[in-house]
Amino acid sequence: MTMPAQPLPAATSPEDAALLLFAHGTSDGAGAAIATALAGELLRCGPFAAVGTSFALQAPSPKEALESLPPGRVVVVPLLATEGGVARMVLPRLLAESGAMDRLTVLPPIGLDPEVVGIAADLADSAMAGAGLDPARTGLLVAGHGSVRRPASERSTMALVDALTATGRYGDVGAIYLEQPPLASKWRAATGCPDVVVVPFFLSGGHHEEEDLPAMLRDGGGGLDGRAIDGRRLWLTPAVGRHPRLAGLIRRRALAALDRG
């Protein structure tokens, strides 16, 4: 089970509380771009006393980040797309190492929030409008991480696919993955539409977003920018984590958590 949101012992003014964003990160330290940008935007918009970032695979760890935040309540926001092993096991362990659990409220992975459906749709619609595409005749593929060992990534990716399908707006909606079938390199078989838009369901960036997914799509004969290759055209949007509405979503969820306290 996903680590549940921890109740606060008393209501806390947002001006006295801090936010801590948690992302996967990368072992070479190159996976901080999205978290850093979100932290800067959240700090600028307020009203929180401080906003920090932390990671599973690079510095700072949650323990190190918490030590740098002011004393008081902290709302932890996982920049994760699923309730998989990182959310269920890695994050709770790293937070426990801080010895500060009594001051923390841990939100569910932000990728599970219902508002992410609208964010993904906006990314797709913007790409289609920019290319002059008719959504009703365009294929939409959600690119998830996937796993051959754990089903959480597939569940959350397919939940997003189902919600986008339910809008009735697109010619076809499907899923592709980095680490399970149908692989992103097989995108041509995942939809029959000649024009295809791919939305990366990644919240914290890193090599999967910047290198792995584009390379797999190219291997499958995708030009990424709408160039026709063998009768098919493909566009790759920015990742869900890079949408400008994500900071507002995080802010609202954090304020609601403090208010519930």
Sequence of strands across the biggest β-sheet: 2-1-3-4
User: Could you say how many structural domains there are in total?
Assistant: 2
Counting helices, strands and paired strands, the structural category is alpha/beta
Number of helices: 8
CATH topology heading of the largest domain? Rossmann fold
Give unreliable regions as ranges: 5-9
How large, in whole angstroms, is the Cα Rg?
Answer: 19 Å
Distance between the termini: 22 Å
CATH architectural group of the largest domain: 3-Layer(aba) Sandwich
Strand portion, in percent?
15-25%
What value does the average pLDDT take?
94
Description of the structure:
The protein is α/β, with parallel strands linked by helices. It has two domains: 14-110 and 243-260, Rossmann fold, CATH 3.40.50; 115-242, Rossmann fold. The chain is 37% helix and 16% strand. The protein has helices at residues 33-45, 62-68, 85-96, 115-131, 152-166, 187-190, 207-219, 245-260, and strands at residues 18-23, 50-55, 74-78, 104-106, 139-144, 172-177, 195-200, 233-236. The chain is elongated and about 60 Å long. It starts with 17 loop residues before the first strand and ends with a helix.
